[in-house]
Write a structure and sequence with these properties.
It comes from Candidatus Magnetaquiglobus chichijimensis. By secondary structure, the chain is mainly beta. About 5% of the residues lie in helices and about 50% in strands.
């Protein structure tokens, strides 16, 4: 029997207890792209007996767990103050969720343990369950492209079982919008409006799987937010990036994408440092490219992701 790659889907649901199967259903289906297989991950130990011949010896698997990665377009819920579908995924990547009814939903980084997901990877008659999943995320924002969140989740292993492919009940689709001058009204760095070509945000999340006597789990063990951006080279009177870098100056960054309530994505940082500015050529046009470091002010506030 052939198992078709196209016949697959992934479901995700927040767990009430770490590692306990939250049993996601078709209403928990995700619209994703570039979905990887739910891979088998493990270390091995060798028996390494001394014997008077060549040849392989018995090995055992340890630290058996799973990983899965996918991308999701960062569109809104359609209703200001209602969490977007990717909100649960951010919570499992170590973000808190704060809802202002009828206005916005804000995500802030957390230090320490965070919520976890049960992920069901269903492929043409096979079901792979990943419980206790916690993850990493990056955000890609590029001119003439859709905003994309890129996730990688690590979770606990369980055997693959036979199961029929469920019918997804996706939430009402909100059309994502590409970043353009019209649809992305704001990009400012240190208080100055710049013509941005790209902003790639790496939330720097560290995730560790542990399997000890009496304990198994996936934990967030660190995070440091950075980004890389490329913009039209500004006049020195507007933004002198090299002087900012030499002086280790910190100031705000803001990006607002979208113009219709319910489908607006905003990124904020109040203590952003410019690092390693360089000039580059883009088809005959001079560009500024640099790394950005997002520093906390009072802790767990170095970046805000707002859906409104």
């Amino acid at each position: 029997m052939l198992h078709l790659t196209a016949n697959r889907i992934i479901l995700a649901k927040i767990e009430s207890t770490y590692g306990a199967d939250a049993a996601p259903t078709g209403s928990d289906a995700l619209r994703v792209q570039n979905l990887s297989h739910a891979s088998f991950e493990a270390d091995t130990v060798n028996r390494a007996h001394v014997v008077p011949w060549f040849g392989e010896q018995s090995k055992s698997h340890t630290k058996t767990h799973r990983k899965v990665s996918f991308e999701m377009q960062a569109y809104g819920s359609g209703d200001p103050g209602t969490a977007p579908v990717w909100g649960a995924l951010l919570r499992a990547c170590g973000f808190s969720e704060s809802v202002t009814p009828d206005v916005s939903v804000t995500y802030l980084p957390m230090s320490g343990d965070n919520e976890s997901l049960t992920l069901y990877y269903r492929q043409d008659g096979r079901l792979t369950k990943i419980t206790g999943a916690r993850g990493k995320v990056t955000l890609s924002l590029a001119s003439q492209a859709l905003p994309v969140l890129k996730f990688e989740f690590t979770g606990l292993w369980s055997p693959v079982t036979q199961a029929a492919l469920v019918t997804p009940a996706f939430p009402t689709a909100i059309d994502p919008q590409a970043l353009t001058k019209l649809l992305t009204p704001t990009f400012t760095l240190h208080g100055h409006a710049l013509a941005m070509k790209s902003l790639e945000v790496d939330f720097g999340i560290e995730v560790s799987y542990r399997n000890l006597v009496g304990y198994e789990g996936v934990n967030k063990t660190g995070a440091a937010v950075s980004a890389n951006t490329q913009c039209l080279l500004p006049e020195l009177s507007t933004l002198d990036a090299e002087t900012l870098a030499v002086n280790a100056t910190r100031d705000a960054l803001q990006l607002v994408h979208g113009t219709v309530a319910g489908n607006i994505l905003e990124i904020q940082g109040t203590q952003v440092q410019v690092m390693s500015p360089k000039e580059a050529d883009d088809n005959g046009v001079r560009m500024l490219q640099c790394q950005l470091l997002f520093h906390p002010t009072s802790g767990n506030d170095e970046i805000r992701i707002i859906s409104r």
